[in-house]
Design a protein that fits this description.
409 residues; six-stranded mixed beta sheet; single chain; three-stranded antiparallel beta sheet; alpha+beta; Cytochrome p450; 11 strands
Length: 409
């Protein structure tokens, strides 16, 4: 972990040093950085999301819960903050105002969330289970005869992408541009161009669905009684894609890494004494795929744990650090879902059951098909993409005895 970066402006005495969260070194070992933050600053740490974007990172579990349940003091609307941010700032697309549930509070949030939850509620879990299996099978067949694969690039990424396209009724060509734009936004590389690409692709999707209504989430948003306008429809889809591609592929890949590297899981999952769901619960606690987010912008200076947080500056919840807060950490993670990975309060993720189901079925399919699969490199040699928000492997190489292709219906 690099030394903290000097940066003025934090209201804690002596806290002019900020931890840089955008560097490759932070991505390589964020938990060491969280431990250093906790030692120096307690529950609230001064950080940089980008060289010119200071923020406060919440690393105390109970502090985070209070903030997440206090939308009056900590609303999600960034419009005043972003007036001072350069348009080409690489983290702006992840933080800027959008007319959706994620970036609003009060009646607007209620309206947007109602449209989203209604559209998601129409997804039948047994049909989604079948969809994931149908998508997983050809992906497995494309790699099984080779005896080696990159489970991120060849399995988790395309599976999450194709499943979400199926849920939203998005054709592959439009969906590919959405995925490319979203990846740029998460990584903060060419993020402004990624944001434009994303908007153009989703505008095409909305236009397509207006002409061809179907039984999918996009149509559900279009038909909802809230009567979302064109801009609002686009930004509900931004939220759904933002939550449904990057975090979901990371959930699948990171849980596979855990299963293949941890002796408690590598044998016990295959023998049936531990389930894939147990591994998912553990991963969501110890190494959440969206590590730092749930951003709020206090409209007035707010005192928390003896620290005065400045008005209109980002307050970021570190789900990763909070879940591993020594004051609440427990050895019993199996079946324990008190983690903050899905957020909490009015902005808690409404798609938790769907995300669980997609990841569980995807992992079960690959483990059933290739039960002798092993990591091709030591887990300590795996690397992670830089970026202050996600916990994303650059690859997950594995090897296994070459296997015959599975029959497809």
């Amino acid at each position: 972990m690099p030394p903290p970066t000097s940066h003025a402006g934090h209201h804690t005495p002596g806290a002019q040093m900020r931890f840089a969260m955008y560097t490759p070194k932070f991505a390589a070992d964020p938990y060491r950085a969280y431990a250093q933050m906790r030692e120096q600053f307690g529950t609230l740490a001064p950080v940089l999301l980008d060289p010119d974007v200071p923020a406060t990172l919440v690393i105390g579990y109970h502090t985070a819960v209070r903030i997440l349940h206090d939308p009056l003091r900590f609303p999600a609307d960034p419009r005043i903050w972003q007036q001072s941010v350069p348009a080409r700032c690489p983290v702006l697309p992840m933080l800027e105002y959008r007319p959706n549930a994620l970036r609003n509070s009060g009646p607007a949030h209620t309206r947007y969330r109602a449209a989203n939850t209604s559209a998601l509620d129409h997804i039948r879990q047994h049909e989604l289970h079948a969809t994931v299996e149908q998508i997983a099978l050809p992906l497995i067949n494309d790699m099984c005869e080779a005896g080696h694969a990159d489970l991120l690039a060849q399995y988790a990424q395309p599976l999450a992408f194709q499943v979400l396209n199926a849920i939203l009724g998005c054709p592959p060509d439009i969906g590919q541009r959405v995925a490319t734009g979203m990846a740029a936004i998460f990584e903060g590389v060419n993020a402004d161009a990624g944001n434009v690409m994303l908007a153009e692709a989703l505008t095409e999707l909305v236009d397509l669905k207006r002409r061809h209504l179907a039984m999918d989430v996009t149509t559900g948003l279009l038909m909802h009684p809230t009567r979302l306008n064109e801009e609002e429809l686009l930004h509900q889809l931004v939220t759904l894609y933002g939550a449904g591609i990057e975090p979901e592929q990371n959930l699948i890949a990171n849980t596979l890494r855990l299963i293949l590297n941890d002796e408690r899981y590598s044998g016990d999952v295959l023998r049936g004494s531990l389930s894939v769901r147990d591994a998912l619960d553990e991963l969501l606690f110890v190494d959440p795929p969206l590590a730092n987010y749930c951003v709020s912008y206090p409209p007035a200076p707010a005192e928390v744990d003896g620290v005065v947080l400045p008005a209109h500056q980002p307050v970021v919840i570190s789900m990763a650090a909070c879940n591993n807060d020594p004051s609440v950490i427990s050895d019993q993670r199996t079946g324990n879902r008190s983690h903050l990975t899905w957020s909490a309060g009015p902005h808690a993720c409404p798609a938790q059951p769907l995300a669980y189901l997609i990841a569980q079925v995807a992992i079960e399919q690959i483990l059933d098909a290739l039960p002798e699969m092993e990591l091709a490199v030591p887990a300590s040699h795996l690397t992670y993409r830089p970026g202050p928000f996600h916990r994303s492997l650059t690859g997950l190489p594995v090897h296994f005895p070459p296997s015959p292709r599975l029959p497809q219906n």
